[in-house]
Amino acid sequence: LTHGSGGRAMAQLIDELFRRHLDNALLAQGNDQALFQPPPGRLAISTDGHVIAPLFFPGGDIGCLAVHGTVNDVAMSGARPLYLAAGFILEEGLPLADLARIVRSMAQAANEAGVAVVTGDTKVVERGKGDGCFITTTGVGVVPDGIDISGDRAVPGDAILVSGCLGDHGVAIMSRRENLGFETEIASDTAALHDLVAAMIAAVPEIHCLRDPTRGGLATTLNELALQSGVGMRIHEPAIPVRPEVAAACELLGLDPLYVANEGKLVAICPAERADTLLMAMRSHPKGRDAAIIGQVIEDPHRFVQMETAFGGSRIVDWLAGEQLPRIC
Amino acid sequence: SASSAESPVAAESIRVRGLVQGVGFRPTVWRLATELGLQGSVRNDGEGVLVTLWGDADARNAFCERLRRDCPPLARIDALERTPLSGQDRPRGFAIVDSAATSVQTGVVPDAAVCDACAAEIADPANRRFRYAFTNCTHCGPRLSIVRAIPYDRANTSMAAFRQCPACAAEYADPADRRFHAQPNACPVCGPRVWLQDADGQPVDQPASEPASQPASQAAIGALADPIAVASRLLAQGRILALKGIGGVHLACDATNPAAIAELRRRKRRWAKPFALMARDLDVIRRYCTVTPAEADLLRSPAAPIVLLAPNGGEGLPSGLAPGQHSLGFMLPYSPLHRLLLQDWSVPLVMTSGNSSDEPQCINNDDTVRRLGDLADAFLLHDRDIVNRVDDSVARIMDGAPRLLRRARGHAPAPLRLPEGFVDASPILAMGGELKSTLCLVQHGQAVLSQHLGDLHETTTLLEYERTIALYRALLQHRTQLVVVDAHPGYHSGRTGRALAAAEGLALLEVQHHRAHVAAVLADNGWPLDGPPVLGIALDGSGYGDDGSIWGGECFIGGYRQLTRVAHLQPVALPGGTQAILEPWRNLFAQIVAGIGWEAFQRQYPDLAITARLRQRPVAVLSRMIAAGVNSPMTSSCGRLFDAVAAALDICADGIRYEGQAAIELESLCQGIAPDHGYAFALRADTAALVLDPSPMWRQLFDDLAEGVEAPLISARFHAGLADAVVGLGARLASARGIDTLALSGGVFQNRTLFERVSQGLRARQFKVLAHRQVPSNDGGLALGQAAMAAARLLR
Ligand SMILES: [Fe+3]
Ligand SMILES: [Mg+2]
Ligand SMILES: [Zn+2]
Ligand SMILES: [Zn+2]
Predict the structure, then answer these.
(1) What is the C-alpha separation between A239 and A294, in angstroms, rounded?
(2) Which residues of chain B does A260 touch, with a Cβ-Cβ cutoff of 8 Å?
(3) What is the CATH number of domain B413-525+778-794?
(4) B134-174: per-residue pLDDT in tens?
(5) Domain extent for A109
(6) Which of B185, B468, B543, B559 sits a CA distance of 20 to 30 A from B492?
(7) Out of B356, B574, B778, closest to residue A311 by CB
(8) Which chain A residue is nearest to residue B661, measuring alpha carbons?
(9) Beta-carbon neighbours within 5 Å of ion ligand 4
């Protein structure tokens, strides 16, 4: 990619690339906005800037990640995602082939998620002023009537579930970025979860909370939910699914998998008596095969997230204060 | 004030400061005044004890003299201030004025070991307290462990549940009696009871192997055989007993029974950490360990701590008690219950905290049976509630003086007098560290340090920590103005302190970890607020540094008001952060990378066992982590250097099972070895500070390994080399600035070999050395240092 003079030709080239891969009726109108009739129900909207190094990693790339991230944020309200808008900031010098690969991946991810990228924007910045490629996506979806899912709805007694193994994405990214060379290559779990969410809602419409434990991992997400709902949580270490190779990598790196990012997992909180039904529904879906009930919501004025260890001890799982600096002597 | 004694005035008031409340001080005053024919009164108030005295000058002088001499065993007189009194009528007799009537606080004192008089009573078949497990008096018994609120009256303790019988009530009301106002006073008629049960709550009447005369379940608790005697027999059979004592529940077994010890380790999941021992008397201890007169005094003191002793090479005890260690921790029975349990034991019992590994020990009956149900075969419980968990204190004689390693039972909450210049210090609450946490509250020129509370990432301990903050603030009627925290952003103590300051609108101050260590040792030694500058040396595990890296081998110059970092150990990566603290081999690898280079090391030392062992590790990944800075913060920690050296000798290389294990085992290895020389360290001048670089030490150590020098001698040469380097560095820094006093702190100075060599080396060079005595040099002393630095800042 070049910047400045010759920019016009470049803009056309990019434009063509997007039109070819992301082709859909709304985008084809060629306006600066997409016009559509909102379907019945409440609308959910979410936006997320995607910044990742490296741009390509085992299990995905920034293109599909930019779709999955926003689709998931919309879906965590119980919504069916409909449309995406995408803004690209490209750094001068990014190989055009890389851009094409990113856009293709984005198109495929959008296709699979049943959403259309209906409007977008591209800017090229000088060399050194970007990290290859940044993508901001905004998603719109519609929440069916009768669904009320929100981070402030957890109540003591509720069950806490996760949809699968934790830590895959963060470990995959770090090992590729730092070229750590683990024996087993770990792939990112990046995936769109709207279909899993739909199956879960169909089975248990009274789900209280849904959230995807992305940056900061499960620990941060549970702390957010505890704070928002004004409750405490108690999770059970042996019940938390982590792939053996991810656990081994985390041990070597000295990272706690509870704090490592995921891009294709969700946390669900529902009334205890519906937990088994929800777990069955999750496990019957390919993206929830390794789902597990990992704990329960408890009353706690401190809003602590506690974890019972394998040996019956209990430790506080806190908010991360910056990086994970050792606290022991 | 001595001159006032010469004055012709017939009356005076005497202000007594120190530890004078709740320790039988007023009855002593009453007895002396009565014996000397003096009139007047004695009362507790917010500043201590106030005495008024009518009589001739000689008698009053004699009174003051004898008061100092006959001071009750648990009391401590810091000052007697005598002022002439006039304009009041001479009273008829001598009265003890009730503290309740004066509506001021009465201090809470530490729990104290059973006194000789009480011990004699429980051993006397003719005494009404014969074999009574809750016998106490004003000179002994539970205090902090049973108090719920102030004032310290029976109604505010867990003794409120027991109404005194007429005989006890009479003792309690009689100023001439040893039990005058002894709040936990009790006897078999009216006081707490002890029983033995199983995990299902069924009474245990007989040891299992003895046929029962009747089914135990049909017998009522209390109608059974003496439960303490039955418990003792169970122990003799190799069983594990949960035993509720003064400040918590112990797990006990026969310390000479290897199978029982192994079983206890298995059930507790405590694989390596040493077990404490309790022996009936000094004679039993002397069968296994040398006990010097100073150690005997420490063992028999009212605090009755666990004292770390050197085995005498005589009768051995099973190695499973303290694997890899050269010392054994012994204590004497400090409650009547322990005395009765041990009376027939000519060998020691293991007496370890009643918990599963890493949790705080249990204190209440239900919790004990629930949490220890699978750990103990029987439960010796009682119905006096333990309100506050107070662990056993741990002490050791080092460099000729007793030093506390854990300050809890018998010491907290006795106030420490702050040094000269701190009298007007504002009320400060210091939150301590993360592990071995304690709190410190400053007020009236005194610092009250809480009992050791433990590791704050454990949920129960954190909740207890919060309750203890509330308890101490209430006990001291503390009007907190400022909260001090460690600068580490992730410490739970810091989070709690910041939240508290925000909620109450209090000022907040952060104090860097190792500066707090240095200030703690200054305060521990009564160093004046505006004393001349000192050189502070903090050799420690890890703490958060000014630059966001991990510090732990630091030299500072200054005092309470300011400490400037002037030297430190060479920073080395900590690959994997916390994981590197748990796995010493990572530190060895990081030291090799920093000091020699991994490739060069493999070329120069291809045949060493550690070279082969390191090659089997994922060192390639570790190399890249260090190079890229992936979760590999830099650290100047001295503790990590010890870990690395231990790993080089294949000590705990894979992992440690308790804090400090690698360093402790490394030190144990070199006991009794006098090294011919120490390894050399290099000193470099960095931009801001001198840097002590261990690379020459590593080369010499690896050369020794290559030549087949035995590990104990290598350990000795390392200890000597590090100590000499620290002495050289300290002397150089101090001399250059005309400083004559060096202050030593930080957890690494619990290493006796290192501490004594540093201390003696500095004294040999005519320096004055300040080292810890009353508070631990580990993080248990941090809160005191934080408080002192904060107080100094406010007094500016
Ligand atoms: Fe420390
Ligand atoms: Mg998001
Ligand atoms: Zn007594
Ligand atoms: Zn009685």
Answers:
(1) 5
(2) none
(3) 3.30.420.360
(4) 999 999 999 999 999 877 889 999 999 999 999 999 999 99
(5) 7-143
(6) B559
(7) B356
(8) A329
(9) B 165, 168, 187, 189-190
B226-382, CATH topology level: DHBP synthase (3.90.870)
Domain B106-192: give its CATH architecture.
Alpha-Beta Complex (3.90)
Cα–Cα distance for residue pair B301/B709, rounded to 1 Å: 44
Q: What is the CA radius of gyration of chain B?
A: 28
Beta carbons within 10 angstroms of residue B238's beta carbon: 15
Give the chain A residue nearest B778 (alpha carbons).
A329
Tell me how close the Cα of A12 comes to any Cα of chain B, in angstroms: 40
Closest partner residue to A326 (CB to CB) among B577, B622, B628 is: B577
Q: Which tokens belong to B481?
A: 């103005």
Between the CA of B182 and the centroid of ligand 4 the distance, in Å, is 12
Nearest to A181 by CA among A249, A242, A244, A243: A249
Q: How many domains does chain A have?
A: 2
Task: For residue B7, give the DSSP letter.
Answer: S
Find the length of chain B.
Answer: 796
Chain A residues near residue B541 by CB distance under 8 angstroms: 328-329
Dist. CA B116 → ligand 3 center (Å):
7
| Ligand 2 centroid distance, CA of A149 (Å) | 16
Look at residues A117, A143, A169 and tell me which one is the last residue of a structural domain: A143
Note the pLDDT tens digit of each residue in B715-766: 999 999 999 999 999 999 999 999 999 999 999 999 999 999 999 999 999 9
Specify whether A295 is located in the same domain as A182: yes
Residue B446 has phi, psi (to 5 degrees) of -120, 155
Whichever domain contains A197, its CATH number is 3.90.650.10
A251:B579 CB<8 A: yes
pLDDT score for B222: 44
Contact B782, B516 (CB under 8 A): yes
- B2-96 in CATH: which number? 3.30.70.100
CATH of the domain at A15: 3.30.1330.10
Whose tokens are 């009212």? That residue is: B302
Residue A96 lies in a domain: yes
Whether A329 sits inside 8 A of B359 (CB atoms) is: no
| Interchain contact, A324 vs B491, CB within 8 Å | no
CATH 3.30.420.40 fits B569-722, yes or no: yes
Cα of B150 vs centre of ligand 4, distance in Å, is: 24
H or E stretch at B63: helix B57-69
Is A88 in the same domain as A181?
no
Q: Is the pLDDT of residue B105 over 60?
A: no
Tokens, residue A71: 């689709």
**From the candidates A178, A324, A325, which should be mutated to test the interface with B, based on the most B CB atoms within 10 A?**
A325
How far CA B316 is from CA of B102, B309, B667, in Å, comes to 57, 13, 20
Residue B295 token pair? 């150690």
In the predicted structure, residue B380 carries a pLDDT above the cut 70: yes
Do A293 and A189 belong together in one domain? yes
CA distance B179 to chain A (A): 42
Q: B637 φ, ψ to 5°?
A: -70, 135
